[in-house]
Design a protein that fits this description.
mainly beta, about 0% helix
């Protein structure tokens, strides 16, 4: 590692039970998306052994239960030899919408699947993707969708660029979750000046704060193999991004399960405990498992 950052900064602490998901028997689990549910927590994750999106539930966010495949690959569509990197939005009518990444022929595209049974099962909305790379900065791939629904509008932040690892983050809006209008100022977030994200940025999640501003947790890359978790704030979620001074928040712990890279944060703020919980996938060699870091207190800066 060319820059020797400590494993955590800014008040974040890695969970002593890490890694929480993944093993030699289960295989690589990566790019998680965690939601609160009545019984605790639900984690959607990419399961490389099956090239599929799977789900598992937990009462405490640490010990996870049965693993269930929700969306398997579909090579017949021509763009979903592998599926991964998803997010979900729960609708008022009981549906759950899942945007996900399909990969084939060295490209990544974004698709949509729908659940009408509360997330127990999903069916593809279409055999075609809902978003494809169209502009030079997007190169061969759009991936890692993250969607918030605000005032009837779906807001998507997504990564784009090279297929092995993306290069920058874009933004798009939709009134139906299917037809997306990309921002004319894309990419809205690019590599920075500090070593922690000096070559590219990738997979993010965005939370709206009580004051109406937004905080984005994202992957920062020092190089193609060295990744850390960083954060930035914006008044509108699109422009005037300001990186936190504490970046990077979570870095590899040399010699440990996440000793070479920390990828794709999924973050929940728990007001009842006045704490933030951040799940991520760590890599050592070719193995990737899922762990968590915690920040006690509301303020991150």
């Amino acid at each position: 590692m060319s820059c020797d950052y400590p494993p955590t900064r800014g008040g974040w602490v890695k969970c002593p039970e890490n890694p929480l998901l993944g093993s030699a028997e289960i295989g690589t689990c990566f790019d998680v998306h965690v939601r609160r549910i009545a019984a605790g927590y639900r984690m959607y994750f990419s399961w490389r052994t099956h090239q599929a999106i799977a789900v598992t539930d937990s009462s405490d966010g640490i010990r996870w239960g049965e693993l269930k495949i929700l969306l398997p690959p579909d090579p017949t569509t021509g763009w979903e030899d592998k599926v991964n990197r998803n997010c979900v939005v729960e609708e008022d009518d009981g549906r759950v919408l899942m945007w996900y990444t399909g990969q084939a022929r060295k490209r990544s595209l974004i698709g949509l699947a729908v659940s009408r049974d509360g997330g127990a099962s999903f069916q593809r909305f279409s055999r075609e993707p809902v978003m494809i790379p169209e502009f030079p900065w997007e190169k061969d791939s759009v991936m890692n969708p993250f969607v918030l629904k605000e005032n009837g509008v779906y807001r998507m932040w997504y990564a784009a660029g090279e297929t092995y690892e993306p290069n920058a983050l874009g933004y798009a809006e939709s009134t139906d979750g299917v037809n997306w209008k990309k921002s004319r100022i894309n990419p809205i977030f690019c590599k920075g000046d500090a070593p922690c994200d000096s070559t590219r940025v990738g997979g993010c999640e965005v939370l709206k704060r009580p004051d109406g501003s937004y905080i984005m947790f994202y992957i920062g890359y020092e190089d193609i193999h060295t990744a850390r978790i960083c954060a930035a704030t914006s008044p509108d979620g699109i422009t005037r991004w300001r990186r936190l001074e504490a970046n990077p928040l979570v870095s590899p712990s040399p010699g440990e399960w996440d000793g070479e890279a920390c990828y794709k944060p999924s973050v929940i703020f728990e007001p009842e405990h006045r704490r933030w919980r951040l799940w991520y996938n760590g890599r050592a060699g070719r193995t990737e498992y899922v762990g968590m870091a915690v920040h006690e207190g509301i303020e991150l800066e």
